[in-house]
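Bench log, entry 3. Co-assembly request; chain sequences pasted below exactly as received.
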Amino acid sequence: GAGVSQTPSNKVTEKGKYVELRCDPISGHTALYWYRQSLGQGPEFLIYFQGTGAADDSGLPNDRFFAVRPEGSVSTLKIQRTERGDSAVYLCASSPVDTGPSEAFFGQGTRLTVV
Amino acid sequence: RKEVEQDPGPFNVPEGATVAFNCTYSNSASQSFFWYRQDCRKEPKLLMSVYSSGNEDGRFTAQLNRASQYISLLIRDSKLSDSATYLCVVTPIYNFNKFYFGSGTKLNVKP
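Structure output for the full assembly:
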């Protein structure tokens, strides 16, 4: 399909390990967002890319979290030294240039479980 | 204080009922407002934007009250398929691409 694709759909990792979560946005969408959703909560903003650059990374909780989008398409969210509190669904969304929520489409997310 | 607050519910209503949810936001300078719908273990999807003058889309009506800093969603003639979590979304005036979600209101429509 032509939607936002996230892989893997589920990831179980041990505390202290490194993980990478991948997002393939809708073709042609220049804006890409990462959000994190814990159980019973709404999605929480992590970072927003416009093209290759991170336009706003103020939502990243600490320096264990990092995201890249080297060619302005696929993005990878990287988490170092994972902690149990990192367990959540990580959602990626994309939208055409600067349209924000009105045209943002979310992927189905990666469910991360840190044991 | 959270940027966006919602009553978590659940709201349990019979088919055909009318139900309304409110969402309050803390920043009076907030720019844009939306309602998203999220089904269990699925991704959020845009339901409708909320315009200053209020807007309607079929059985759904959204309203904005800037003076009291809340938005509302009214669902008429509820269907079983309306059962979901409804998320309120607000964008700050300084950054349209950083949107804040409420924690959602769960709706259960019963036969």
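The longest strand of chain B covers residues 84-91. Chain B touches chain A at residues 4, 6, 8, 32, 34, 36, 42-46, 49, 87, 89, 91, 95-104 (CB under 8 Å).
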